[in-house]
Amino acid sequence: MLFTRIRLAVFIAVLFPLSVWAQDGSLDLTFNALDQTLYGNGKATDGQAVYCSAVTSDNKLLIGGGFTTFNGTSVKRLAKINLDGSLDPLFNSGTGSNGNVRKIILLSSGKFFILGGFTSYNGNTVPGIAKVNADGSFDATFSLGSTPPDYAIQNADLLSDGKLIVSGQFTTINGVAKKYLARLSEDGVLDPSFEANLTVQKLLKGIQSDGKIIIYSYPNLTRVNADGSPDATFTTIGLSGGYYPAETIILPNDKLIVYLPGPAPKVAGYNADGIIDPSFQQGTLGSGGVTVMKVKADNKIFIAGNFTNYLSSGRGGMVLINTDGTVDLSFLQAANYSLTHISILYDNKLVVSHASGLALLSATGSLVFNFKNEKGANASVRALVVQADDKIVLAGAFSIYNQKPAIKVVRINADGSIDPSFISAIDDFYYYSIESINLQPDGKLILAGGNFITRLKSDGSFDPSFSPQGIGGLYASCIQPDGKILIGGSSGPGLARLNVDGSLDNSFTLPAGFSGIVNSIAVQSNGKILIGGTIICTSSDFPTKRYFMRLNSDGSVDQLFKSGIGPDQPTYVITVAPDDKIYFGGPLTFYNGLEIGHFHRLNPDGSIDNTFIKGLGNFPSQPTCVFVQTNGKVLVQMINGDFKRLNADGSLDNSFIAGRTDGVGYPFFSRSIGVASDGSVYLGGDFTKYNNINRNYIAKINSSPISDNCKYFQLSFKTASEISCGSTTPTATAQATGGREPFLYEWQTTPSQSNATASITSAGIYTVHATDANGCSTDASLLITGPTSQIQIDLTNNLVATTLRKGFNSTLKLNALNQGCISASGKLKLILNNLVSYISALPVPSAISGDTLIWDISNLVYGGILFQPVVTLKTSTSATTGQQICFPVLVSSLEADANPDNDKKYFCFTVFNSYDPNDKQVYPTGSCNSHYIKDDQLLTYTVRFQNTGNASAINITITDTLSEGLDLSTARVVSHSHPVIAEVVGDNLIKFHFDNIQLTAAVTNDAASQGYVVFEIKPITGSSTDVRIDNKVNIYFDYNDPIITNTVYHTLTGSIPTVDVFVTQDASALTANASNATFQWINCSANNTIVSNATTNAFTITNTNSYAVIVDQDGCKDTSSCYIVPVVTSSEEVNTTTGVTVYPNPSNGFSTVVCAQDLQNATIKILNANGNIVFEKNDVSGNSIKLDVSKQSNGLYFLEVWQAGVVRRIKFVKD
To answer: What is the mean pLDDT of residues 1007-1036?
Structure first.
């Protein structure tokens, strides 16, 4: 049965590719499919040192060093390899040497000598030198006798006659006294004719063509003759001005090239006799030193080391110089590591060995091959990003990818192959490892690490418009939505922000004394900046050490972030989810005193998200990177190598096969995660295996496409400007979140605009379409308001009132504003009701006339400073709950007003028992109990909100779902307490965004805890009659549940109905005149209480109280005036309650108003049945006034007499 199942599995795999049915979390074996390599493990020396090499007659390479394996095969510090990176199978060094091999001397016979720090070769005792046959076996014919040297031989060189000059610390060879320098035959026999008679140890540096020997002992370079005697004709090269000779080579013409360490290291040329060669230009190094020099057949010289700038050529690491010492610029800058040896092949290619292995260079210095036969990278991939086209950009410490040069950065295709269209401009080995990579919306890349940050275009070339200065010690970077770049590390204060051109953003100001190491940075959608690391500050903002904190967008500490004392250890990982929740982790175990493990999730405000399952069980070690998928699931790599996927609640996703990264030594985890549009997961890091399968620093993990890939993709507006009266062109900026970058924007304007920021040309609704790299798309619309006229004055007013409660103070905030662009001056008037008493106002009124407060206004213009007096009133205890108190407001201009109809408004507010600071108000309220309005009536809605919590509210969002009878295209924002963005959603929803306004809590400052927005809108013209318009809003304070306000409503009608509330009085008998109506009499003297069993049109007064009738006629209710038994009777119409008489009533065109008491500076108004003022006369004195109402249409009217805060009202009819 087992065999059958295996065959079935193979058959299925043939029919269905692995990528189709592979379980989530399994390794994608189709990615870099030959990652298993051609030869062994393909790792060559696996990062171990190669100190020397030699090219054999068959164009193969002998290599020696500190390595113990080659391609996984044990070779013990000596190997012979082919130029394709494979071992020569005919060469076998057996157990090899027991110490490092540092030099190889080839013989014409194919045999060779090896020298180094070893005492045995292939089991044979040797004194640091051995002769090896061409097949790698030990050549026993070479022997130094029965008594080995007392100290090892350290260097040797071959004479033209085949003999060897050897040097070292030895004082005897085969029992014969020979100090430090000796000559041997090819079989190891000591040549007694060579006698150097040295008194101090000398190291052999080379042999000139005449057999004379250059030797060195600090600080002198000297020469002996071929017989070992001192050569007096050689000028000693010794210590001079702080310089001393070190690395030396001899040219074919016997001249010397000497590396001189010292105050400013350099390379100098000397004639064969040791005299300085004036024809050779001394080579300065910048910084660093020289480790190896090699002469070419054309006498040009390779110089290599860790120097940075040879002879001010800008070349470092390795250069080729001409015979006169000048730099040969045809040779590329090839290496940054300190080379240990250079061999030149027959075709002039170079084999360079170094502390991490060896490499093959072209004759011009470009990298050809690193002798490894493995795919992937040759060193750590420290960051990666998946582009919109699903190509992947890798960055890190590597220099090779898939055996091709790829210095620190490379772009690959989804199958792991190199994308040849991306040619990185980074070719200087002196760049530090790239620690972070960020993809801009335009496809450009920000790369940062060590002492540099740069920007590459999408083709890999440098972006010359980006020019940062003075950058150092970078560990992290992050691009803000506005394109500015946050960088963090260990240099300076540890955190800075760059402008889009790379210059330092001086508007970003950190708290005083801010310093430390910033390891991680993330930005939330509101622009707040999260940083993790070890931060210290002397500022009072946070006087203690912090490991995690949030800054405002200007760099100041966000005191509203609810982190408390934060974590107990540095935070190395911060990831912001599409919903602004925060994933963070590190070596920490506590957050604000609560044990959370090494990894947890916070709410956007920094408080612990208790819906996230604690990670103690799932995370025995700290995370190294975190990626939140668009479906809310979370990919997490841990420092112990475990790689897991969590569900959105923090529980382990068992549908995803947990994996493990591994490698040789530590570290062996991934450092970066990316997800492609098909769901595939890419890991980059320090590992060389994934689930025990070879994967060199990059792996692709199978993962199903996310069906709800667009779930979190959202579009909002970051900024929006209103149309101004000047020449400045306003703009609006959209911001996409929760999708895969880059985001593409398309504004539906004429002409269309394709940037996140669009220019605004006129007031109205603007729509932008956004698409992300996954193909998700969404729209968002914005309401832009502008002046009603560029060439006229258009004054208007609004009134925002806190709740009226009897016996308590309330505030009225008036808004006098000019909706036109011509500056206006004039007056603002507020007429008080007799049920309120005036306490104070700010600013103080310019004048108070009776019950009228008057302010002088000047220079009002659209977009300018509003005139907003705040009046404090006290509601009378005689007011009744449910009663409306009305306040007429009038604004007038000294010059002509384009729209005088909106200058006068009549605001009414209901008296309540309780206080509700979050409500919705509307002007006008409409007629009758059904609040009738016509379809051309402009409605002004006011939404009030107040932060009644105990901490500041950062963001307030108001959502207003409009009734179908309202015309969204007529909406405009009139005024607001704080900066607001009005977003339009669909056909009937407006969202008012008060972002980052930091609304103070009421317990701290009641006045500063309040806000409002006022907007206007009209019904749809031609709407059906009896359409009801209901309106309420949801008010969101940060992430709390919404507060749902009261509902205001209107009913659309073709004509405003009137109710006949005329009452005929005959002494104590009252008769309501209305027909086809219902009636309810009320006692005005007892707070309008209902009179029992008084529901007919007739009522008889039996006491001294006053009475009125509520008439309900055709679905519309209204209340008559109050009546008492009159103390006088005449032909006049008398209202004894108010002391006001109107006669005749009904009026035929002229009426006389008589008051019981003389009037002083009073105001008389006539209002129609809709509550609109149709006549007004100010500064009235005396007790008898004649009024002309002939121009008014027939119907019911109200006459009001305003004086000293008291309103007297009587109804009359124009007939």
So the answer is: 89
Q: Which residues of 264-303 are buried (b: 16+ CB within 10 A; e: fewer)?
A: ebbbbbbbbebeebeebbebbbbebebbbbbbeeeeebbb
Q: Which of 1125, 1142, 1167 is the last residue of a domain?
A: 1125
Gyration radius (Cα) of the chain, Å: 46
Question: Quick one: which H or E segment has residue 15?
Answer: helix 2-15
Residues 729 and 854 in one domain: no
CB 67 within 8 A of CB 35: no
Please say if the pLDDT value at position 436 is more than 90: yes
Identify the CATH number of the domain in which residue 1084 sits.
Answer: 2.60.40.2700
Whether 1063 and 943 share a structural domain:
no
- 1074 and 1038 co-located in one domain: no
Q: Which of 1198 and 598 is assigned the larger pLDDT?
A: 598
**760 is in which domain, residue-wise?**
714-784
Name every residue whose Cβ is closer than 8 Å to that of residue 89 and which is 6 or more positions away in sequence: none
Single-letter amino acid code for the residue at 444: K
Confidence band of 675 (pLDDT split at 50, 70, 90): very high
698 occurs within a structural domain: no
**How far, in Å, are 255, 653, 1072, 1092 from residue 1075 at the CA level?**
131, 75, 9, 21
Please identify which residue in the block is written with the tokens 């008439």: 1111
User: What is the C-alpha to C-alpha distance for residues 1206 and 1184, in angstroms, rounded to an integer?
Assistant: 18
Residues 870 and 901 in one domain: yes
CATH number at residue 995: 2.60.40.740
Q: Does residue 764 sit in the same domain as residue 827?
A: no
Bond prior to 667 in cis (omega within 30° of 0): yes
Band (pLDDT 50/70/90 cuts) for residue 1106 is confident
319 and 288 part of one domain: yes
Q: Is residue 1006 part of a domain?
A: yes
User: Is the bond leading into 1057 cis (omega within 30 degrees of zero)?
Assistant: no
952 and 853 inside one domain: no
**244: helix, strand or coil:** coil
**629-635 average pLDDT score:** 88
Q: Which two tokens stand for residue 806?
A: 């009897």
Nearest to 187, CA basis, from 199, 176, 174 = 174
